Amino acid sequence: MSGTEELLVEVDRLAAELDGGDPPTLLDVRWRLTGPPGRDDYAAGHLPGAVFVDLDTELCGPPGAAGRHPLPDPAALQAALRAAGVRAGHPVVVYDGGDGMSAARAWWTLRWAGHREVRLLHGGYPAWVGAGRPTSTEVPAPRPGDVEVRPGALPVLDAAGAARLAAADEGVLVDVRAAARYRGETEPIDPVAGHVPGAVNLPATAYVAEGRFPTARRLRERFAAAGVTGDHPVGAYCGSGVTAAQAVFALHLAGRPDAALYVGSWSNWVADPARPVAVGEEPAGSAPAA
Q: Which residues neighbour 201 within 8 Å (Cβ) at sequence distance 6 or greater?
């Protein structure tokens, strides 16, 4: 497999695998920041055999000072994944409602937990339906899995680590929120507007469009516009670590598997009023839009 094939799977390839003798485990992780819960979408129709896993309650810990989507308790995550049928060494495919964000956070969480065999369905549920593939409302009863969660397989930043990376001469902390949020002009969710001092802005729309990722070469060009070059350390954050997980996924596609996720992201940063907040543009924070 190419690097891309180890991370992304297209509809036709997935359909063929599902028709095979040992299909991958399918996890439906549809989620919205606001609005009806993803479980409602799952009940209305999902890929045949897919098991719903809730981002908020099963793939993340409870919200609080650590952020709105903090790391999950390893034992609780292991129980949830086993209940969904995830088996050690067996491939998993995750999908969402098409934007690739919650699927990327699910991908990141499984990889962080030590399960390497996980791919994201490119284009999510809409791509499957748009290709005329069958859907189901039947809720499967998977055989319990035996996956073992071993945290730490992907790099993680805490607030102190994010601050150090943002201040480093040879490192980049990328803020992937909308430019107006980064500049501190508006903040619709968290109590304080602005960004981590020294972080540069590359809105998610600059490197992914409607859940579709460009080529690795194009991704490298877009991240280079934000200062991500060579082998200098790179990390990403957003509001609560969901969109930033998508950025880490994109960086993996671009050949940067060392990219770190600030899981708590802005919701964790502003939980401590002693942490400094910057507004306006940083010198390198004017990456072009797609």
A: 174, 175, 176, 177, 179, 182, 183, 195, 226, 281, 282, 285, 286, 287
